[in-house]
Fold this protein.
Amino acid sequence: MFVIGLALDVALLALVAFIVYRVVTLYRSTTGTVKERLLATAWGSATMLAGFATTIGSTIMIYSDTVLETLNLPDVQALLKDNVSPKVMGYVVLGTTALIVAGRLRTLFRGLSS
């Protein structure tokens, strides 16, 4: 079970690293307004851009418990655990985002092949 969890953690962090790399490199290489540059990072789709942002946000939520433990902030960690489980909420948001992004990619690439 530990190996599967570790593999999923590595895959999730690799996905976030890829998204950040893609957004930064395409943003820097594109010219135009901020909106045009941001849309260019996500194949011209605001839905994909929102999916990227939500993926990064949910990953931060998933690892917030570990980060707070590392930074030795037990008060904030207890507050989060009492009110909401960040890890569960992060996985719920990530799953929802994966469905949205998969659906949008399907329609984007179907339009490219026509």
In short: Residues 42 and 49 are 5 Å apart (CA to CA). The mean pLDDT is 83.
